[in-house]
Protein 1
Amino acid sequence: MEDMEIKEENESVIDEKPVDINKIGSLKSLGPFIAAHENSQNTVYLSDVPAICKEQPCMLGVDEAGRGPVLGPMVYGISYCPLESKSVLVELGCADSKQLTEEKRDIIFNDLNTLEYANSCIGWAVEIISPNVISSSMYRRTKCSLNEISMDSAMGLIQHAIDAGVNIAEVYVDTVGPPEKYQEKLLKRFPNFKITVAKKADSTYPIVSAASICAKVTRDHALKVWQFPEGLLIKDNAFGSGYPGDPVTKRFLTEHIDLVFGFPRLVRFSWSTAENALADKAFEMEFDEPDSEKPKYAGTKLTKFFKGTTKTGEVKREECRFFKQCHLDNVTDF
Amino acid sequence: MSITLDFDVKQLANKRQLELHYLPAKINGDGECANVDKYFNNYTREASDYGTGVLTNALRGYPLLGKREAVPKGYKGVVLQETDPHQAQRQLRLTGTFEEFTYWNYDKVPSKGDGYQQAMTMLQVAEALAAPIGEAELEEELKRQQQAKKENL
């Protein structure tokens, strides 16, 4: 089934007019778009902005997909439409995306992009946040939490929409954490919008459902078309849901450990599931973290001058400060 | 106990060049590291935001910033290997040589302040210590010291 689809796509590339790989015009072009972009970096995609969204005041929804899994990217999505076009969202079937099956979400995503009554008034954008970037951010010397990564992505996407000319009036954001702080931060950055941050906004506001569907469908496809620069070939990319409890994911994690490098970069190294698996099965690795060393503030002891010799009577010599600072030391063993 | 470097100096010129990474981590393991290209080199990128020649990558999720580094002028990098370090007569064999390597820091742009760069001061110290000193230079130095003493009084 999967193979057939790919073949069909290839054929259409050959005999139709050249397909723009940088454009997502339907569900079919989503996979090829994702596959054409490096999966170790973040990728942002913005749909065309419908003309009406530049004129009329719009509402904009923000949601994310793939926050919890130990595998694959986290995807942030936004969607927007004029305030008065809310009925279009309902007609499309934008409701709580977790209540929708994968198939239904795919259909809605395709309709959203291909049907004239929808794509003439709804626009959307996603950011695919690479697992490689997630790990690296969370393991920085000054740790950047997943919440910060999330907020930065959400605000980045809203900014993209503003820059593209979308006339935003209201913003609705789904959150898992405490809404107050998030709302405050968003208002500070975008003081002119009416901003609502709420738990389960996904099921309350259709515009958030639409954003959620874009994010979820993108995440699902990102996993399907994932190509391992590590050269791994996994049949049908079957590595499970990515949730630590999933036995298929668990098996993937235990079976694909490189003793030195750990996992392929599909895996979020900063997840405790991944950390624990490596602690058990891979070579132990210690990073230089001189910054975390505690400075010693105790001054020189007064008795220092009476302690020139050690117990055996020989004089103990301090290392020369110059060499110490240069990280140089005497070595007798080689 | 003795250590023998068991190779012909001629080998230095025609031994294969090695691709090396100086990592900011201690790996407690021994053995061949076969997947460097696929798991690591594949992901090295130029990061011009940090300056020219600065590279990025990550090791087990830890962000790395690196730079291509040449072996100091007049020196040659060699990799030696020994099978059994517990023998009284130790033998080290030549695995390969290198003129360049990639130096990596953990989330810090490589700079003169890095431990590695600092330790390279040893080369200058060694040169200064080993440089021959003539009679004239010695007298010059003595004069200078006497002069300094006078000034301090």
Note: The radius of gyration of chain B is 22 Å.
Protein 2
Amino acid sequence: MNYKSHILLFFLALFLCFGALASGNVKGEYTVSGYITDKSNGESLPGATIYISELKKGTASNIYGYYSISLKPETYHLVYSYVGYGEITIDLNLTSDTSINIELIPSVKNLDEVEITGEAINENITTSQMSVNKIDSKTIKSIPALLGEVDLVKALQLLPGVKFAAEGSSGISVRGGSPDQNLILLDEANVYNAGHLMGFFSVFNNDAVKSVELYKGDLPAKYGGRLSSLVDIRMKDGNSKQFHGNGGIGIISSRLMLEGPIAKDKASFMVAGRRSYADLFLMFSRDEDLKGNSLYFYDLNGKVNYRINQNNQLYLSGYYGKDVFKNDFFKMNWGNATGTLRWNHIFDEKLFSNFTFVVNQFDYNIGFNDDGPQSFLWQSSLTDYNLKANFTWFASTNNKVSFGFSSMFHDFFPGTIEGQNEESFISTYSLPNNYALESAIYISNEQKIGTRVTLKYGLRLSIFNNIGPDTWYMYNEDGDVIDSTTYTKGDFYNTYWGLEPRLGVVYQLNEISSVKASYSRNYQYIQQAQNSVAGSPLNIWFPASPNVKPQIGDQVALGYFRNFKEGLIETSAEVYYKYISNAVDFRDHAELLLNKYLEGELLIGKGWGYGAEFMVKKNYGKITGWMSYTWSRAFRQIDGINNDQPYSSSYDRPNDFSIALNYELNQRLTFGLAWIYLTGQPVTFPVGRYEYGNTNVPIYSNRNDYRMADYHRMDLSITWKDKPNPEKRWHNEFNISLYNLYNRKNPWVINFQTDVNDPSVTYAEMTYLFGIIPAFTWNFKF
Amino acid sequence: MKRKFTYLFLITIVTIVSFQSCTERIDIELEEGYIQLAVEGYLAPNDNKNYVRLSESSGYFSNVPAPTVSNAIVEVTDGVTTYTLQEDAEQPGNYLFPEGFTAYREQSYEMNISLAEEVGGYLNYNASAYMPRLTDRIDSVSVEFNTDFEYWMVLLYAWEPAGPDYYMFNALRNDTLITDTISEVSIGNDELIDGNYMNGIVVMGFGKKSLKPGDKFTLVLSNISEDYYEYIIQLQTEISLSIPIFSGPPANVKSNVSNGAVGYFAAYPSVYTSTIIRSP
């Protein structure tokens, strides 16, 4: 299919669409629009609500805090509200298009005492988006963390439908999907490897994070490219009112974040850095061999934004992080780098736009430290250049249209090993770069019908091109090369495209409860070569190609949402079914590292899963937090694996119970509690053995026929703050956390071994990672 | 070679992970799989190791030596001559080649087994093996002690012939085999060194106590087929510790014997090079 004709077609469709909608635009209406921000620091407030008492209708601000609503010229009470902030009511006599920027004030009082008017709309009830969870950085911080290292990925793992890939891993499995099926965006930039220290900590420094939203399969039309979820992480914009900083010293790392205005209310900055000192840790190791090693990570986040005028705002943000491991002999490092430039432009009150340019890279280097003839360097990277434009057209009170495009150029450098010395006897082993263009155009509308029904319907057209130069290998059934074709530079030698409908409907039973349903289809064109459960930074990403069709995921979901006590308590229940075509898996004993013929190791099949998720969440008061329970299954059937029979996916863990609670005893003392329970991980165990070469060789059961013992763990944290004193600028906070409070020995892996003393005796041995681990962190704020 | 780099990396990470982790033996109830014929056959004339061993697979926790399979008819043919193997009276289940038998390089051999009673649902099994060429332009071998890793490293100085080759390395200390289980055998391919002079490439490593200065050390280099190389890789993977960060799902080790039998029938030539270990 010709690429250019696609674009032409799209703009034609867009134009037609617009004509139709524009004619539906009611004449004699005026628009109220503006930004909603936090008065204390100028941060925009996405998802803040505007409620019009007279109409019993409302809207919510977008991710940049912008809102727009069209109304007939009358007198209205506009109620602006956001959880954790005092409400503001504006009396407005609407006679022309009006711009109102609102600054909401965070509630200092204990929220139990805040008067609730009941005027605010219940955003979670009315929004047509389902299967979504939002967590802000304050909530993330309140959850007890491993070694006191606050981690947003670990917070996500406590949400319904989300499980860790393996204990301690910063990989997540959403609704039974694999970790590479999650689109992890940091300020719109792809983060391909979200783990530090082999995944035990995530790469996101919570000090720099504003909020994270998790979309479980039902992605807005704006996003695509992954089957299971979108993890949309937004960095803080930086305080535009006054200079502030915070930081901390913990047992794993030290942090410092600084933010402040460059020009008051016009421009601000935020920088945050973090450096671990696990290398110090190793110095205290009992093992002499470990003492010469150094192992650490660091990361930097930075952001500046500049409000040119009411209609134009620029944001520039970036991330740079590295993990370093070295000793006298060997060195290794890996990390992500991202850069995002965004321009918000308001064409008129009804048309909000955002243009984004992103560059992101993940790379690793491994080599010997000496320069002898054996020394080598092994490198690999993946770089993306991404241009996006998104438009939101607040067409009328009842229609909100979103449309735009995204085009991403992938530069895959799967790896090369080369000798580092003239006398080197290592010939260069190199996997050539390959290139691909992943583009999408989309349009969606959120339409209110009457006061009870909201529809969301959107369509995303995704197009994927493999671009030369490249050599394409043809494989036989056994994965052996039988033919090859070479393509020249710039040759668009292979194209896939797909239509991805995103549909949703909300039926509001009343003001506090609703029923929602959704259907979504996603195409995934790039995936990770990973067959271990937890994954490592060495697992490269590889694109769809003539041998690898894009994976396609379909998901239907149905949910019931109900709020109690004026939104104090939110509850939800969702059921879903999902189906994956062209699911990718790997042959037994596949060689995934530095393999020129990686595609020969692939096996293609299908996957499916279903589940029910329940959640109760308390938003404010002395006790806040949530409890969730998920029952779910996830299966795969792939010819060539498990005798072609269906098997449980490694992420199939039927029962999942999580609690995350925060108890504010008084203004100075806060307790955090987390408890997690998961059905044991499915595993393949040996059912027989034979002798060869004086060794017992295992003969295995069917794939994932057994399970490890169930996983459960409780964590606790206590935070003690300075006496609140508005006169003082410096505030201290001390945090004690206890990971695995009751010292549960959760199996991380089970190995089968032969007894050293009697070679005819074999036994099973469980490895568990963390017993009870206390940690202490000192945090400060100024 | 590539595997070596990966292993180095793995060892490092395993050391770091083990810093935090603990292990304990646990009881697990396992079903018993059905019984299969296990074959361990060698045509290794330079090693004086020509025999076929037949046994049965057993439950994983059976905890007794594998039952041997006796009274089978085992024949090996090079296409011209067929040799009938005789069961060893002292070691039941071991079938020996007739006196004077020898195998040649760059030659295929086929083995046929007829059992007296069915094992694994079949009476007849067969397998074939190709004996590769031999990389014999070896200058020397040296054994050096690496103080960083506290490890004895075996360095090889030799011409690597052009074209794909797969290697298995065994070791003798004072003329006694010290790599007597397949887990201790070292293997490699020439993907990164094809056709180059191997100027002291590390081919094996031994713990501090395995060797000592003054020992006579003999490196046994065997050229094995690609398929046997894969068999050993798979076997060594499945019997080594698995860690969730790197290890793929467990999978059965391949076999070159028909009808669902397990094990391998291999043919390979070897060359022996000795040195006296000097003080570090």
Note: Chain B touches chain A through 85 residues (CB under 8 Å).
